[in-house]
Amino acid sequence: RALLAAGRRERARDILARAIRLGASDWARSEGWNRAGGGTPPEFSSEPKAVLVEPEFPRLPSLPLQLLDGGVHSIVPAGGKALLLDFWASWCPPCMIELPRIQALYEAERERGLEVIAVNAEEPEELVRKTAGRLGLTIPVARYNAALDAVFKVRVLPTTVLVDREGRVRARWDGYEAGQEALVAAKAKKLLGDDPEGRPRKIADILAGADRVQTAWAREFSDAVTGLAVLRSPEGIRVAAAAGRSVSLLDARGEPSGKVAFSGGRILALEAPCATDPDLAAFRTGGTEIALLDLDSGQASTWRAPAAVFEVAPVPAERKAAAPRLALATGSGVYLLDTAAMAASRAGGTGETLSLAVEGGRILALEARGRLLALDHSGRVVAEADVDPAAGRLVPFGIASSGFGVGPSGIAASAAGRFLGGADPRIAVATVAGQLVLLDPASGEELLRADWPGITALAAADLDGDGAEELLVASDRFVAALRAAASPEAHGAPVETVKNGDRSASRR
After folding, report:
1. Does pLDDT of 16 surpass 90?
2. 149 Cβ contact list (under 8 Å, min separation 6)
3. Are 28 and 5 contacting, i.e. CB atoms less than 8 angstroms apart?
4. What is the pLDDT of residues 271-302, one digit of tens each?
5. Can you tell me the distance from the alpha carbon of 227 to that of 247, in angstroms, rounded to the nearest whole number?
6. b vs e for 229-252, b when ≥16 Cβ sit within 10 Å of the residue's Cβ?
7. Taking a C-beta distance cutoff of 8 angstroms, is the pair 356, 327 a contact?
8. Are 225 and 456 in contact (CB under 8 A)?
9. Is residue 158 reached through a cis peptide bond, with omega within 30 degrees of 0 on the bond before it?
10. Whose CA is closest to 267, among 306, 223, 230?
11. Local structure of 138: helix, strand or coil
12. What's phi and psi for 362, nearest 5 deg?
């Protein structure tokens, strides 16, 4: 609007064209475009494509249920139906109270797609038939066996299990309490209706470049994810996610592989030369405590910094057996922490240090007064330069020879990796305003842009061993892994294809 008011129509037209391709408002497509010269406006995507996370419910295997009448039924319902399993025995008084009410629920809801099977606890067949007839049961009756026990491990009767249309366990009641049938019925009716809790949840909208990526996996946690780190070992890659008062470990497929009690915050992986060294370092922006965690033992140790800590980065060891060291950007300058001795030394620079990065043989430190320092690994200043005083974050490019980026404090997280394949790393940058952008640092080309609110951390890892790294994104209570699509047609669910925007307006 300001450019149009100033008569700079060509410049305004370039910006409007880019905005329209990203799905701009009606004003940009009509009045703004007409004032900039008119004509046919560029094509745009009116519907952003979603990144989705499946809700975490246990999935059942397709085990057969041997029915008393000789038929077979799978515990995974077919044809879009839901299934209620009720485990019972004739000697169980609560079972005798519950079963007729389960029968009534079946009669009321079977037309809407509810199947019910009463699974008897291995009593004699004649007794089972006699009891079912006395109770007036028309629902199928099955027999409990070792295969079912391996899945359900029923130890209390009655036990009631509700399975949704996708074969996922949505509720389970072990034992019986008065009025429980109403809870079972209400939950069953929800599953037979719209069932919003069972649908995939949108965590982001891809605005441009969705044909380049697909979601490898996405996971939901019970608490907000505050930190993300990639642990590499001869056994493989693990992803560590700090959420609440624990660090959860995921394997390369995103499946849970462990959990350690630990109040984390932002976390980073340490390249430990021996098993007794810590695996993770954690801190909270603006806090003074640095915590070190050994994942095998669960033991943690802490060190208190002399000033508020804004950023932490691992420093490569000077010799092979040396313990990990950390560079700390604090309110009173840069410190180097020896994690073995739990002692720190003051490095060069005296001003408030907002951000730092370690690349090659240097530590880069950005001071609040607009000074950029280069330090060697001993902490000695070897070069310095003036930068924009508004700069607040350093963005490593992932290649020492390519330099680094200096950006505003509105950058929430960044990561460099060989995303989408290729020989050189690309840069992923997330902002506190909820934007995720993937850039090629060599050309400045914008490869992907997304509305992705609440991003707290980014990381890179080659999870599938194909040589290209996946982009790991932590936001709110979710962690998602994005990988390169094999072709525009192979983007796959849950990320769908949208047209790329005009790259002529992208910049470094």
Report:
1. no
2. none
3. no
4. 766 666 788 999 999 999 999 998 888 888 99
5. 9
6. bbbeeeeebbbbbbbbebbbbbeb
7. yes
8. yes
9. yes
10. 230
11. coil
12. -140, 155
Answer whether residue 489 shows pLDDT above 50.
no
Q: Which residue is it, tokens 């797609």?
A: 113
- Cβ–Cβ < 8 Å for 416, 425: yes
Q: What is the mean pLDDT of residues 79-101?
A: 94
Alpha-carbon gap, residue 261 to 332, rounded angstroms? 31
β-bridge partners, 417: 426
How far is the C-alpha of 357 from the C-alpha of 365, rounded, in Å? 7
Kindly provide the residue ranges of all beta strands, DSSP E only, lying in 23-123, ordered along the sequence: 49-53, 64-66, 72-74, 82-88, 114-120
Cα–Cα distances in Å, from 497 out to 100, 485, 489? 51, 10, 8
Average pLDDT value for residue range 62-73: 88
User: What's the pLDDT tens digit per position in 318-372?
Assistant: 766 677 889 999 999 999 998 888 889 999 777 889 999 888 778 999 998 888 9
| Residue 378, number of CB atoms within 10 A of its CB | 13
